[in-house]
């Protein structure tokens, strides 16, 4: 298995009953890239991510991971390759934090095998990466929203995936933990596809962005090419200025709430 996988989404259409959630979407994330999905509420980001981590089967189109049809891979092979951190997962585990993170090792183990020293080290690393080492023995279901989110990210890291898919991973996190988590994702060898609402964080941490609007992709490319005042007006209906931050070199969006 590669350390980082190539993701190719081609012509994907997603439906729920008669409703079309996403239509004819194509996008790529190359090995090792951090690729952001941005767009207004209801534009189809979560739905598209669900098709990639194999929860919502495309009505048309394909999702390929290193060339293989993700929807045809054996479950165990998929779990060794792709990890997901989803929105408001109904993860009410009656488990300690460390046990939740240890679940990330399951795809790599034989049935009923215990944790090896290597598993223990990977779990320790994952906990430390999200500043959750101090939470290791706490019951997961008593954690705060942000603490839970960090533990679920640690579980995904412990899976050592070649493709990591995250839906709003900074949700619930304070600013320091937002920056820390995105920094960790940035440094991973894996390919990362994530939905983000904060355009300044997306601009700083993502190599490329795909902008979704009403179920379709309306712009794709490096943040500096994609995030323009015209796009902010067209897609979000807001007035914003975009400058290059003098120290980070990343595009920085300033919103002008009253259009001034
Ligand atoms: N199972 C479903 N049945 C009907 N409509 C659905 C279903 N799942 C999603 N939708 C609709 O599809 C559209 C896209 O939803 P999705 O959750 O993908 O958007 P999103 O871009 O992730 O939004 P947000 O930024 O609010 O999280 C929305 O209009 C949503 O109401």
UniProtKB/TrEMBL annotation:
GO terms for molecular function: ATP binding. The keyword Zinc does not apply. PROSITE patterns: ABC_TRANSPORTER_1, ABC_TRANSPORTER_2. Residues 7-239 form the ABC transporter domain. Keywords: ATP-binding, Nucleotide-binding. This is ABC transporter ATP-binding protein. It comes from Streptomyces parvulus.
């Amino acid at each position: 298995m590669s350390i980082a996988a190539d993701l190719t989404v081609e012509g994907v259409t997603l439906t729920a009953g008669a409703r079309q959630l996403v239509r004819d979407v194509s996008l790529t994330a190359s090995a090792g890239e951090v690729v952001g999905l941005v767009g207004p509420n209801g534009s189809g980001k979560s739905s598209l991510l669900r098709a990639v981590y194999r929860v919502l089967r495309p009505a048309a189109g394909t999702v390929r991971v290193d060339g293989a049809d993700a929807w045809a891979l054996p479950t165990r092979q998929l779990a060794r390759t792709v990890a997901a951190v989803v929105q408001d997962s109904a993860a009410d585990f009656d488990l300690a934090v460390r046990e939740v993170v240890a679940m990330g090792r399951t795809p790599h183990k034989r049935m009923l095998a215990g944790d090896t020293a290597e598993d223990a080290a990977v779990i320790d690393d994952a906990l430390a990466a999200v500043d959750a080492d101090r939470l290791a023995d706490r019951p997961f279901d008593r954690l705060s929203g942000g603490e839970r989110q960090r533990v679920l990210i640690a579980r995904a890291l412990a899976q050592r995936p070649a493709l990591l898919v995250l839906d709003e991973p900074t949700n619930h996190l304070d600013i320091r933990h937002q920056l820390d988590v995105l920094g960790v994702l940035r440094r991973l060898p894996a390919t990362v596809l994530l939905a983000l609402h904060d355009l300044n964080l997306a601009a700083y941490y993502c190599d490329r962005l795909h902008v979704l609007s009403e179920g379709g992709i309306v712009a794709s490319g490096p943040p500096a090419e994609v995030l323009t005042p015209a796009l902010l007006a067209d897609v979000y209906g807001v007035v914003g200025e975009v400058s290059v931050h003098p120290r980070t070199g990343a595009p920085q969006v300033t919103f002008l709430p009253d259009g001034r």
